[in-house]
């Protein structure tokens, strides 16, 4: 989350690599012992929300993807 915040704050930073990192985190968490049974819905929701924030941060005011 810190990396996402830093990338969002820096308007020149590319955010695409963050989506790849979120995918890796989701895969890792989905294979952890007890996580799916215990808290996967919460973690999955947080990862999805962060992906939405990253996507929004990478859009121009006109709603077009920015050229990174």
Summarize this structure as a short list of keywords or feature phrases.
66% helix, mainly alpha
Structure description:
- There is one protein chain.
- With 68 residues, this protein is mainly α.
- 66% of the residues lie in helices and 0% in strands.
- The model has no long low-confidence stretch (mean pLDDT 76).
Query: Which descriptor suits the 3D outline?
Result: elongated
Largest sheet: none
Give the helix level as a range of percent.
Answer: 55-70%
State the end-to-end distance.
20 Å
Oligomer: single chain
Count of separate DSSP helical elements: 4
- Number of extended strands: 0
Poorly predicted runs of 5 or more residues: none
What fraction of the residues are assigned to beta strands by DSSP? Answer: under 5%
Would you spell out the secondary-structure blueprint of this structure?
Elements: H1 2-9, H2 16-30, H3 35-38, H4 40-57
Brief account:
The chain has 68 residues and is mainly α. 66% of the residues lie in helices and 0% in strands. The protein has four helices and no strands.
